[in-house]
Design a protein that fits this description.
80 residues, mainly alpha, 4 helices, 55% helix, 0% strand
């Protein structure tokens, strides 16, 4: 459990909009994203960058992007 006190996903209208995709899937906001809840502007920027650069945002296609991400994670011993 994090020691940082984070606002709820629906604490403000903007946070509610930003975290809606995770709530719709019935899962919590990932910790790496949730850590930015105190600065919704930064959170929105990171989410937009992430959407534009990964998983369907490039000409490689989602399948190849996920294959690259999985391989990189395995090579770096990432367990998430």
């Amino acid at each position: 459990m994090s020691w940082i006190d984070l606002p709820d996903d629906d604490a403000t209208p903007e946070l509610s909009r930003l975290t809606k995709p995770y709530r719709n899937e019935g899962r919590p906001t990932p910790a790496v994203i949730a850590a930015m809840k105190h600065n919704p502007r930064a959170m929105r920027g990171v989410l937009q960058m992430n959407f534009g650069a990964t998983f369907g945002g490039s000409s490689l296609g989602q399948y190849r992007e996920e294959l690259i991400a999985t391989t990189a994670s395995a090579l770096n011993d990432c367990f998430y």
